Amino acid sequence: MKAGNTVQAGVVDWITDDIRRILAPNPSPMTGPGTNTYILGRGTDVIVVDPGPEDPSHIAVILAALAPAERVTAIVVTHAHKDHSAAARPLAALASAPVLAFGDAASGRSPVMARLVAGGLAGGGEGAHHAFRPDRCVADGAVLPCAGKGLRILHTPGHMGGHICVAFGDVLLSGDHAMGWASSLISPPDGDMGAYMASLYRLMEERWRLMLPGHGDPVCDVAGRLQALADHRRAREAEVLAALRTRPANAATLARSIYHGTPAALLPAAQRNVLAHLIDLEHRNLLACTDLPGPDTIFTPTDAG
Question: In CATH, what class is 12-230?
């Protein structure tokens, strides 16, 4: 799907009566048209979700979008990537509001990823905000008062261990876990394919009227989009297994053979996605490797795979 870009950066876009979107001016191959900042509520107390990159002009637009009687009671960050979290601290100082998130950039990692980090596996340079610290950590299931509906926190690890989605009534603010214009990057050890799939299926258990992603336009057919994302990952997994039945390989070799026609600038991200599949498949005993799983590790199918 093409990147949705039906609004201009810096323009306040009313999606519903109590949800505003402001597009940050940070378009790129990885962010699509830019990062979406959302303001939930209207008239009195409001909550800002994903304040975006540390850009003074974007922060100024967020504050200018508030009505005179409106007060920011919380700034919720879905995950600690700089394009979502870097504006949180300066906005908090200007709005006198606390920053809420699941945790810092290393929070929520599964035992599998913790073991790989201990073994030396590093991220792929996707812009993790290592200095990010929330004022308050919010747990799965926590509810924040907002516009009479409540804002429900859903811990959805996968894109990052500490990633959260936000349920605002029957509207899902999905951060980078699910988008309409592209699939999410899953880059170990911050990203975890097994956790991503589990979180995706969890979201599919609920009925959503609308999905508002961290990048791109709103998604109306939420169930259909979530199913399509799950199908895409399972198809990619099948491609990885099929390629390895031909000959053992590492993530880079597999990415070049599987991601046909992918621009060179996006191949490093493709390799990280493949590595995420390889680690998940090894954990499920469908692949074997002689070394600790990593970018250069050679993988082979097991009898189960």
Answer: alpha beta
